[in-house]
Amino acid sequence: MSMIAAFYSGKSILITGATGFMGKVLMEKLLRTSPDLKVVYILVRPKAGQTLQQRVFQILNSKLFEKVKEFCPNVHEKIRAVSADLNQNDFAISKEDLQELLSCTNIVFHCAATVRFDDNLRHAVQLNVTATQQLLLMASQMPKLEAFIHISTAFANCNLKHIDEVIYPCSVEPKKIIDSMEWLDDAIIDEITPKLIGDRPNTYTYTKALGEMVVQQESENLNIAIVRPSIVGATWQEPFPGWVDNLNGPSGLIIAAGKGFLRSIRATPMAVADLIPVDTVVNLTLAVGWYTAVHRPKSTLIYHCTSGNLNPCNWGKMGLQVLATFEKVPFERAFRRPYADFTTNNFTTHYWNAVSHRAPAIIYDFYLRLTGRKPRMTKLMNRLLRTISMLEYFINRSWEWSTYNTEMLMSELSPEDQRVFNFDVRQLNWLEYIENYVLGVKKYLLKEDMAGIPEARQHLRRLRNIHYLFNTALFLIVWRLLIARSQMARNVWFFIVSFCYKFLSYFRASSTLKA
Ligand SMILES: CCCCCCCCCCCCCCCCCCCCCCCC(=O)SCCNC(=O)CCNC(=O)[C@H](O)C(C)(C)COP(=O)(O)OP(=O)(O)OC[C@H]1O[C@@H](n2cnc3c(N)ncnc32)[C@H](O)[C@@H]1OP(=O)(O)O
Ligand SMILES: NC(=O)C1=CN([C@@H]2O[C@H](COP(=O)(O)OP(=O)(O)OC[C@H]3O[C@@H](n4cnc5c(N)ncnc54)[C@H](OP(=O)(O)O)[C@@H]3O)[C@@H](O)[C@H]2O)C=CC1
């Protein structure tokens, strides 16, 4: 019997960010392994014209939740969606809901965050710092609370090269930042943002670091732990391999490469690709929840959920495997045949951006205009290049994360728990994982049917022929122009033609002699 699964039975669990990538997998695993839990409260906001109920209904009826329904047929009854917006004061939760949350919650998993790299500081602070502070305040009023688990990121301190499982202070106190957001106007905030974030690449990593400091300040009153995942990718094993439902991290770029838009990217092939499957993160998070509640460690423990020091894979190996998988399972309706390469300096990056990204987009838009359609490729390509520029920081560096606490926790688990809540990334076979990831992107993100593969192959063959035709035509045009304008080109041309003629004559003569 799993001790962790038994621990969550009968418990009331509060999850923020349950509609997000990680939150959904967390909720699924909890319900599947502990179908006797009392209730899962999820803080949800209405979004994109959908009510809370519609959002929850959509999630529970998705492919991800198919398996859980076998273990927990009354899954709908176990979930209680509470209307809440973490951008609002007191989360705009109704008094009755708040009362119920405060009096019943046993465990809190705080996953909600803005993960956008380009968010303005005000919004990132509101969600990643102020909302964390408010949630901790709520937690301090929960008499039955056993553990509060905060999800941070391994990149919160990406300005350092070696990162330990400790909280590193930021130069300005989070309380001061929160206060200043109240009275500073947007223009001034934008101006001071680069100074505040310092040598971090974006507001996301900075505000996640501030969020950790807020957690630390509350750690005397509460039983808290922090989980720091690195780049969270598709599921490895559970509930099935390859599940992914958003474009964050590598997923968006896998699509861009598979559809033939992405041709080159500035990346360091030998840099460690510190990817971690989402189900591994969830297993560790649930184990941390159990350990924190049952063992009540004296201080706030931080757990790195990373792969680099235990089972490293680099971007070069990952990129090659992604491309190899496109050969087996091509994506449908590609713009060009999938092929991409890494560049390593500014000059080649700009060159290939112009030649392989911008020029084909301009040509295609010209073709769209000619055929009376609206041009769209240049806009799409600009967006892709902007996305790449935001991710480049993470694919050109390597970090070392110590995993002492995570390994300690692994050794504390029973063999059954090590199996059910497996977070031992040493068992991960990267080539298999990446292949399943690409397949998952095709099936669950692009919603493409495997039956369409022959048609996709046929489409790629057509693209190859167009490519050859285009190159030949381009060569002939350039050559014709050169011959018309330069004596030297004419001389070279006559030399090649006479050489070919002599070679053919010799070949013909020698074959006649042999006969
Ligand atoms: C040797 C052989 C070489 C072979 C090479 C082969 C290449 C194969 C691919 C290899 C993959 C390499 C992958 C490297 C990836 C590295 C990732 C590093 C991530 C570090 C994570 C740090 C850990 C964390 O804690 S953060 C959590 C993760 N967060 C993110 O990833 C957020 C990133 N996204 C953003 O910040 C924004 O979305 C942004 C700024 C990128 C774009 O903002 P914008 O306002 O322009 O767009 P959106 O409104 O968001 O969306 C517009 C449009 O674009 C689509 N889209 C969104 N994100 C992505 C994306 N990442 N990639 C592609 N497309 C994206 C979105 O759906 C929208 O589409 P619409 O159709 O308009 O709706
Ligand atoms: N994905 C990754 O690569 C990594 C993620 N992390 C951390 O993991 C956690 C989960 O990330 P992930 O699942 O990928 O992120 P997602 O963007 O998929 O999910 C974010 C969640 O936060 C919720 N949220 C955002 N704003 C609000 C709001 N104003 N009110 C209520 N809820 C809100 C979203 O709700 P809604 O659906 O309504 O938008 C969503 O449920 C985050 O803390 C992130 O920092 C750490 C390392 C890497």
UniProtKB/TrEMBL annotation:
<comment type="similarity">
    <text>Belongs to the fatty acyl-CoA reductase family.</text>
</comment>
<dbReference type="InterPro" id="IPR026055">
    <property type="entry name" value="FAR"/>
</dbReference>
<dbReference type="GO" id="GO:0102965">
    <property type="term" value="F:alcohol-forming long-chain fatty acyl-CoA reductase activity"/>
</dbReference>
<keyword id="KW-1133">Transmembrane helix</keyword>
<dbReference type="InterPro" id="IPR033640">
    <property type="entry name" value="FAR_C"/>
</dbReference>
<dbReference type="InterPro" id="IPR036291">
    <property type="entry name" value="NAD(P)-bd_dom_sf"/>
</dbReference>
<dbReference type="GO" id="GO:0010025">
    <property type="term" value="P:wax biosynthetic process"/>
</dbReference>
<feature type="domain" description="Thioester reductase (TE)">
    <location>
        <begin position="15"/>
        <end position="284"/>
    </location>
</feature>
<comment type="function">
    <text>Catalyzes the reduction of fatty acyl-CoA to fatty alcohols.</text>
</comment>
<keyword id="KW-0812">Transmembrane</keyword>
<protein>
    <recommendedName>
        <fullName>Fatty acyl-CoA reductase</fullName>
        <ecNumber>1.2.1.84</ecNumber>
    </recommendedName>
</protein>
<feature type="transmembrane region" description="Helical">
    <location>
        <begin position="466"/>
        <end position="483"/>
    </location>
</feature>
<keyword id="KW-0576">Peroxisome</keyword>
<keyword id="KW-0472">Membrane</keyword>
<keyword id="KW-0444">Lipid biosynthesis</keyword>
<feature type="domain" description="Fatty acyl-CoA reductase C-terminal">
    <location>
        <begin position="357"/>
        <end position="448"/>
    </location>
</feature>
<dbReference type="GO" id="GO:0080019">
    <property type="term" value="F:alcohol-forming very long-chain fatty acyl-CoA reductase activity"/>
</dbReference>
<dbReference type="GO" id="GO:0005778">
    <property type="term" value="C:peroxisomal membrane"/>
</dbReference>
<dbReference type="InterPro" id="IPR013120">
    <property type="entry name" value="FAR_NAD-bd"/>
</dbReference>
<feature type="transmembrane region" description="Helical">
    <location>
        <begin position="492"/>
        <end position="509"/>
    </location>
</feature>
<dbReference type="Pfam" id="PF03015">
    <property type="entry name" value="Sterile"/>
</dbReference>
<keyword id="KW-0560">Oxidoreductase</keyword>
<keyword id="KW-0521">NADP</keyword>
<keyword id="KW-0443">Lipid metabolism</keyword>
<dbReference type="GO" id="GO:0035336">
    <property type="term" value="P:long-chain fatty-acyl-CoA metabolic process"/>
</dbReference>
<dbReference type="Pfam" id="PF07993">
    <property type="entry name" value="NAD_binding_4"/>
</dbReference>
